[in-house]
């Protein structure tokens, strides 16, 4: 028996040693996936002037409305007139079209019509500012102030930085005599923040014209500083896809009556139990798809401990998954999320509710579907007293994951590397919805990247849709150069 134990222990020791060797070999041979690039060639000649023009754009209160009839068209019309006046080259050379009332579509015809075109997206609309937060703003949100190296105001980060950045780049290229080889289109939706009807109308128009694109780029992930744990360099993350969107209602009917004679469980009580079960049973986490590409790109750039982990997910994937699940933002990147956002029921404190309703919002991970979510909710709730129904309004399946081997990816990756040479470029997943989803099927290369630098120590992610939205003049200069470099790389000779 003693010899048998010795042989078992010896075998375990050998197996452990082999595992350690494999771990070390995989770690030491994990090489950088960053592509070598030449220096950036596009330079902004007047960064202060560009900053002032972004500030001017902020002053137009282009706030979209869920109800199209309630939309105030005046700020959009004024904004369109400002574009025409401010960028005469763009307005004169590119063929502008007004689509769905307020969306703008520009076409810059290329010299070679046989080449698949480039499509750059941005949106004109911004989210409103809550009156109660106005006193918290360091600069008024719609005054378009440039001060102390910052451009302040609603839309500076989402998404007039992209829209004006594209306009600045195109105008500068035109003035320099640039003629694109491939056609370049610009599509500026007017209601991305509420539904994206403008983007859907423009996408339908482009599909009707039989166009298919080499590359489609919209807002999305950004250049993060100090946000990716274990990475000393900034991370420039490019979204290969975004999540789908679905809202469900959990409905419980009650008998009503006086609260002095309640049943064991009122409608609200039954609903509370259903919500508890649903939150306790989230949909499963997945670390394949865009996330595996991100780990593969970031891992080799990290210090030894993290490099070892990300080079050996075959063994240590559970540890990584646990860490990701512990954070709100990282958890959202690996699973379909469940968020109970609204609840209603009852009319008076001493009256039993006849109905209780909870609204639950789901952001669906690529690879899963609306039908998958419905099946999961039915299984998790598992109560025939609870009716599950789709909430009226917007919903979308998650779009396909774009390629990281296509010509479109290659030109975008190269451009990001040139524009942000201090950053590590990696694919990722956008957890928010964008206009890009409307263009599914028009290209295999649809990406989501904003040329924004987001710093953890200044809480920049909280400024998006939040208080004190701003962008530095230096960062906006980088954004203009990025779009100019992208057009030059994608459509130049």
List keywords for this structure.
single chain, 493 residues, alpha/beta, Aminopeptidase, Alpha-Beta Plaits, 2 domains, 8-stranded mixed beta sheet, 4-stranded antiparallel beta sheet, 14 helices, 15 strands, globular
Describe this structure in words.
The chain is built from 14 helices and 15 strands. It is globular and about 80 Å long. By secondary structure, the chain is of the alpha/beta class. The protein is 36% helix and 20% strand. The protein has 2 domains: 47-242 and 399-491, Zn peptidases (Aminopeptidase, 3-Layer(aba) Sandwich); 244-390, Alpha-Beta Plaits (2-Layer Sandwich). Helix 2 crosses helix 5 (160-175) and helix 5 (160-175) packs across helix 14.
Quick summary:
It contains 14 helices and 15 strands. It has 493 residues and is an alpha/beta fold.
Itemize the secondary structure elements and their pairings.
Layout (H helix, E strand, L loop, with lengths): L1 H27 L18 H12 L14 H14 L1 H6 L1 E5 L3 E6 L9 E6 L22 E2 L2 E3 L7 H16 L8 E6 L7 H12 L6 E11 L9 E8 L1 E10 L13 H14 L9 H9 L5 H7 L2 H13 L2 H5 L4 E9 L9 E10 L5 H12 L4 E5 L16 H13 L4 E7 L15 E10 L14 E3 H19 L2
Parallel strand pairs: 3-6, 3-7, 7-14, 8-13
Antiparallel strand pairs: 1-2, 2-6, 4-5, 5-15, 7-8, 9-11, 9-12, 10-11
Helix pairs in contact: 1-9, 2-5, 2-14, 5-14, 13-14
